[in-house]
Amino acid sequence: VFMRTCIYYTMAFKSTHHAVAAAKYLSGIINVSVMPTLRSISASCGISLRIEEEDLEKLKDALKMRPDIAENSSLYKADGENVSPIEYN
After folding, report:
1. What pTM was computed for the model?
2. Pairing status of strand 7-13 against strand 47-52
């Protein structure tokens, strides 16, 4: 059974094209959900991906194969009301 927690990661994108490409690529590797970008994240096209906490390392490994996605997105850790940027490296 897939359980969601209060702590998760979200990827915000420079364009809808990059969001769709990332969702297609990552959905074969990890559990991703398309979601609206959190209000506290200002620089974005409005579409984000939710990544569960246990998939962070798989996400980082997957993005090494697709640097174009990493270059056109930002990663954030969401912990309740607190949202903070995270580096991919």
Report:
1. 0.88
2. antiparallel
Residue type, 53: E
H or E element that contains 36: strand 32-36
Checking if the pLDDT of 1 tops 70, the result is no
Give the tokens for residue 17.
């094209």
d(CA 5, CA 52): 8
Which residue type sits at 36? P
The vertex-85 CA angle with 37 and 48, nearest 5°, equals 20
Q: Are 13 and 43 in contact (CB under 8 A)?
A: no
Helix axis angle, 56-65 relative to 16-27, nearest 10°? 110
